[in-house]
From TrEMBL, chains A, B:
It comes from Exophiala bonariae. Its cofactor is FAD. PANTHER family: D-LACTATE DEHYDROGENASE, D-LACTATE DEHYDROGENASE (CYTOCHROME) (AFU_ORTHOLOGUE AFUA_7G02560). One of its GO terms (cellular component) is mitochondrion. The lineage of its organism: Eukaryota, Fungi, Dikarya, Ascomycota, Pezizomycotina. This is D-lactate dehydrogenase (cytochrome). GO terms for molecular function: D-lactate dehydrogenase (cytochrome) activity; D-lactate dehydrogenase (NAD+) activity; FAD binding. InterPro entries: FAD-bd_oxidored_4_C (IPR004113), FAD-bd_PCMH (IPR016166), FAD-bd_PCMH-like_sf (IPR036318), FAD-bd_PCMH_sub2 (IPR016169), FAD-linked_Oxase-like_C (IPR016164), Oxid_FAD_bind_N (IPR006094), Vanillyl_alc_oxidase_C-sub2 (IPR016171). Residues 103-280 form the FAD-binding PCMH-type domain. It catalyses: (R)-lactate + 2 Fe(III)-[cytochrome c] = 2 Fe(II)-[cytochrome c] + pyruvate + 2 H(+). The keyword Signal does not apply. Its EC number is 1.1.2.4.
């Protein structure tokens, strides 16, 4: 028996505003604003105009009193208000945000905790005193993630740099946030293991989790999200939680681990991470192919991937980038200044590696590749791959003046649109008159542009970045493939994801951190843009 | 210059309760309880005793009026209050929860929407009327996920079964929640693509996302979390959001996609999913090895994995399970009744597949394997793998009476503890006197026990499951590897993750769904256990 409708005028019922309880709740919410920071409605989203105004207290006396408490927790040697320390924690030349030492707006203090318990105590002080917190580790992020726009206190994880345990049989390890990924891999090498995510040199696990980074290995191994098993996190009120134990697989409740990965310290501060590890491939090879055009290179990659051929990495460098490598001279070899694909192949036997490499060679040739350099020997491999590794530094050598700025940004699009957007962006860079190169994790539909310009041409660079991002979004891609959101990319999120989705993120942020003290106003604006 | 502490008695400052705003907020929260459902504190967690009492209205008149509205939205043919429909949506024999048709507590109505917009309208009605909602698709979950313990309305996604688009070049597709994974793979085969997660037959995308399922392919391809690019979700207040566009990689804000995967419909209802696809491997082979003991088999797997040898799947079946396959006779072959490993190998060439298979054969032999059957031919492969595929049904044939119950449960532990826990659990099953087999996704440290028993021995089965889960947790594993939490596993979460972590999940649930109408009280208890 199915229910038969006999209602009259149902539209009017459905069209009614949610009166009654929800309405009353809103009334109390308005009154409650003076007392509480969680908005009181029955809504699942939170608009920026409904976020209670921050009640941060960054007065000199409050900071000074807080620093006394911090000193008691971590020792006075680990609390700094020195101008140089504050400046280091206020930004860097690599920010896409227009940072300079002269215009920097440093925070008020830097605290260096040594343990999860100390972080919890520090956060409790800040929670009670309503002092904004900006987390810091490595300092290699480029979207303004650690710029202390709200003032307050930086928590620097430099001292928390221990590898706590490595479990080779379980293929996992537990580390503190201040461990660098390169140092970790150095340690793991003796067990023939490695941690795949490979962002810029100097990056540390804490920041890598915050950004949800990736790198060249993502084509085969995925991104940071895929390599974190469990996190110990200090929440905004100082509560310590651990998101998981150590099984490789679990469906035990909400995926808090992945909620924190990519949240840039806005939902909690990571103080310990259990990471998955991969077995170092027994055999490895590298190949470099040059192509007459970026499109030909992109087509070759599409063809390789759609045949299910396993490549450990595939990177594209455009002719400007290749020229810069020759100019900088950081590698021994002289390179053909044409769009090039850099491949990595790995496997448990030489046969497997060579078989994949052969297939890739054939497909590249079909797509017009004019040269194919292959290396299985360790030194030769290193030499070939060194061009890719030195790409950013090589571009730096192309600056016309040492005061020229560099703006590295990235977007990602569905694979089939990659050639279109790269071609478009290259044309746009050429027309802009500033120098720029394209460099891409082409296996993921993700690429970077590196722009060099004098400060007075910032608006031109900004225009190039803006148009590239708009194009990526129009192609059903993303404003940020692996660099996070920080400050500059915030205002693209609504366009990319829709207002309701951003309002959902804001609701989540507000639930985790009702006082908005954790890296407040990053990723999602918590106050209207002025 | 480092700050020097001159504070007296800081301990007492730090020890102060968070008075002032937080305290006053709590007061208002208590008053506000009558009007609003979001607790008003500055805390980042929510204890079960602080959740406002549900104000659900499941009165006959409210449901009847709601059904009139539903009929207006979806047509009266798509609203049912028929007893048989309600019973089907109240549970099944496969639940670990003690469900029988006689003791079932059905909900009050089932609604069958046809679009995202219809789901949003239905949810808005329920939100306004405070009617609990239980989502339903496929109905193959076994931890009680779709049992309508709060009464109210089931939303059944059967009609939303369209594959909306397949983008072969982008390796993605967009589908509605009522699409079965087997049907999807059938459609994708013509493009040489497939969707890797392979849970039980009959499962549909909506439920697979809810549970965060996996299956035999997880060893090589990961779980559901790794294969969802974007979700369209209807939130508790009817708001429609889309978590992402279609890039393979993105760091655009919080990972809402993965917040919903595994949340069992408690945070929102998935109405559309964009899924990543994999290229169907050109070449495939299957091998089966028998071992003198489970430990020898587990050691072989450990050895294979730690050498980085690529296997597409590796499953362990114990001797009870192998015997059941012979007894049931669902496969042609007569099997050795010993612990056995089932391997799948895939690759882009025969050479790659054979090379991996050879290595695995050698390692298995070293670990005492007494036989190694290998098949690359499609029919032979199918025949070998059929034993694994029919495992559950074969066990069903071992029931002494057709009214005997089956309880399938799973846990996961760090790889190195797998042999220990399987041996322990087998001993425990033997001592319990009930019939049980072990079957495992051994490459992930994840295994299932299948227990058969007459209803009057439920407490014995419960004891076995309880001890297995407790052991897994003690070994730093999880109470649930791939079946989700639902009802039965809820009370293990605090033990596994800690109280503060569960309180964080509860805070998140309350923020997304302040009226607790979406599959309320599943995963995380929202009311104290009575």
């Amino acid at each position: 028996m199915h229910f038969t409708s006999c209602a009259r005028n149902i539209d009017s019922i459905e069209g009614l505003p949610a009166l009654g309880i929800a309405g009353a709740g809103f009334g109390i919410g308005t009154i409650g604003y003076f007392f509480s920071h969680k908005k009181q409605t029955d809504s699942s989203t939170l608009e920026v105009t409904d976020v209670p105004k921050f009640q941060h207290d960054t007065s000199a006396s409050n900071i000074s009193d807080a620093c006394k408490e911090f000193s008691h927790i971590v020792g006075s040697a680990n609390v700094s208000t020195a101008a140089q320390d504050l400046l280091i924690h206020s930004g860097s030349d690599f920010q896409s945000y227009a940072w300079t030492p002269e215009t920097a707006t440093p925070g008020a203090a830097v605290v260096y905790p040594g343990s999860t318990e100390e972080v919890s105590k520090i956060v409790k002080v800040c929670h009670r005193r309503k002092i904004p917190i900006t987390p810091y580790s490595g300092g290699t992020s480029i979207e303004g993630q650690y710029i202390p726009t709200m003032g307050g206190v930086a928590i620097d994880f430099t001292r928390m740099d221990r590898i706590i345990e490595v479990n080779p049989l379980d293929l996992d390890c537990t580390v503190q946030p201040g461990v660098g990924w390169q140092d970790l891999n150095h340690e793991l090498a003796s067990d023939d293991l490695f941690f795949p995510p490979d962002p810029g040199p100097g990056a540390q696990i804490g920041g890598m989790i915050g950004t949800g980074c990736s790198g060249t290995n993502a084509a085969a191994y995925g991104t940071m999200k895929d390599w974190v098993l469990s996190l110990t996190v200090v929440l905004a009120d100082g509560t310590i939680i651990k998101t998981r134990q150590r099984p490789r697989k679990s469906t035990a409740g909400f995926d808090l681990t992945r909620s924190f990965v990519g949240s840039e310290g806005t939902l909690g501060l990571v103080t310990e991470a259990t990471l998955k590890l991969a077995v170092k491939p027994k055999c490895e090879a590298v190949a470099v192919c040059t192509f007459p055009s970026i499109r030909a290179a992109a087509n070759a990659v599409q063809s390789i991937i759609s045949r299910g051929i396993s490549v450990a990495a595939v990177e594209v460098l455009d002719e400007v980038q290749m020229r810069s490598i020759n100019v900088a001279g950081l590698t021994k070899r002289k390179w053909t200044e044409q769009p090039s694909l850099f491949f990595k192949f790995t496997g448990s036997t030489d046969v497997i590696v060579e078989d994949s490499a052969k297939l890739v060679g054939k497909i590249s040739e079909k797509h017009g590749s004019t040269s194919y350099a292959f290396a299985a020997d360790a030194d030769e491999r290193e030499e070939l791959w060194s061009a890719r590794k030195n790409a950013l530094w090589s571009m730096m050598a192309m600056r016309e003046s040492p005061t020229d700025k560099v703006w590295t940004t990235d977007v990602a699009v569905p694979m089939s649109r990659l050639a279109d957007i790269i071609e478009d962006s290259k044309r746009d860079i050429e027309q802009s008159g500033i120098l720029g190169a394209i460099l891409g994790h082409v296996g993921d539909g993700n690429f970077h542009s590196i722009l060099l310009f004098p400060e007075e041409k910032r608006d031109i660079a900004e225009g190039v970045v803006h148009r590239m991002v708009e194009k990526a979004i129009a192609m059903k891609g993303t404003a940020t493939g692996e660099h996070g959101v920080g400050l500059v990319k915030r205002d693209y999120l609504e366009k990319e994801l829709g207002k309701a989705t951003v309002d959902t993120m804001r609701m989540m942020k507000n639930a985790f951190d009702p006082l908005c003290i954790l890296n407040c106003d990053k990723i999602v604006r918590m106050a209207p843009k002025i």
